[in-house]
Amino acid sequence: MILRPLPRGGALPAPLLAELTALYASQAEFHALSGDFPDPSDIRPEQVEAALAGELAHPDAEVLLAHVPDPGPDPATDAPPGERLVALAVTLAHHPDPADPDPWIGLLMVGAAEQRRGYGRTVATLVEDRFRAAGRDAVRLAVLDGNTRGTAFWTALGYRAVAHRPDRALGRPCTVLRKPLRAPGTDL
To answer: pLDDT truncated to tens, each residue of the chain (188 aa)?
Structure first.
């Protein structure tokens, strides 16, 4: 798997935007819970582009696109030949609250057709590795109340609840999870 940052600024190429829209649209159940889109069953390219631009408006944010090898190139995508987009992660290197020292994973989304293949776990590990390499001690994320699959996923990866509070963006109730980032091969 390869993680590539989404470039900042400018319009997204139409084929990449189509691929990202398909990824977002495949997760209508999550978007119904989050309320991020007016009609989760009809997510439009311009809505996805605006959502991604909103994420990247924060200077410490990064949108990481996860690609895997694909036996045949898809001429309808902007991914390099022989790869396909399976997931994305939105990260925040520094939380807006100065009392919070940890970086955050704001979103990890795997295409519905790509789930149960280990891609989510791999993206999470790669993101953790990036933060670890940057000298960070832990990472946090928030799981919306009602997202039982999300909670199960993150706790299986070693994240533990540290708080329950409304999210900063829309005031939605969520559980804040945290995972210490230890050097690979250590037990402590």
So the answer is: 999 999 888 888 898 999 999 999 999 999 988 888 989 899 999 999 999 999 999 999 999 999 998 766 555 555 556 788 999 999 999 988 888 899 999 999 999 988 899 999 999 999 999 999 999 999 999 999 999 999 999 999 999 999 999 988 888 999 999 999 986 666 54
Nearest by Cα to 86 from 53, 105, 114 = 114
Are the beta carbons of 57 and 90 closer than 8 angstroms?
A: no
Q: Which amino acid is at 172?
A: R
Cβ atoms of residues 44 and 33 within 8 Å: no
C-beta separation of 92 from 108 below 8 A: no
Q: Do the Cβ atoms of 87 and 111 come closer than 8 Å? A: yes
Q: What is the pTM of this model?
A: 0.89
What is the edge-to-edge ordering of all strands in the sheet holding 160-166?
2-5, 61-69, 83-92, 104-110, 138-144, 173-180, 160-166
| Contact present, 26 and 113 (Cβ < 8 Å) | yes
